[in-house]
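Human:
Care to share another protein and its fold?

Assistant:
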Amino acid sequence: MKILAVSGYKPAEINIFKENDPRINIVKAAIQKRLIQFIEEGLEWVIISGQMGVELWTADIIFTLQEEYDIKLGVFPPFENQESRWPDPLKEKYEELKMLADFFKPIYKGDYKGVYQFKAKNMWLVDKSDASLILMDEEFPGSNRFLYSAAKEAGEAYPVYTITPADLDDIVEEIRMADPDYWQ
């Protein structure tokens, strides 16, 4: 696998409303653990659409991993100005993402025109990647269910990896056990 599409929940879908919420670190740790595994197996590119939440957090992880690994980030939003209605701190983060990404290109020119742009974005991400990694609880899917469905429709030759609530619980336990005070 050379190219991996990564997605997941938007912050509000998992009740995260502040950029300093400690649960973000748990999500990031779970994503980073999987990405390192894939990078060590030959992953070269991570592609995202740049939506807030899991995708922006993934970008943060990639920028950190680039200090140690040869991994690139491609950002392909469904249309230009996707961040126009976002809160200002996230707009700033998105602007930084556009500058730091190894490749950035909206799939459609111009602003939002219709829901078809999101569907096309999901199909495009699946078509241009070798596999997907999606943070998702199948019992409580959010907007990520659309990419998940597009990925599943690609057939058995297209692997769909997930990070589940159980995986997040494992990360919490790993973090707790790494604390020396835990063992006292």
Summary: The chain has one domain: 3-183. The first helix runs from residue 23 to 40.
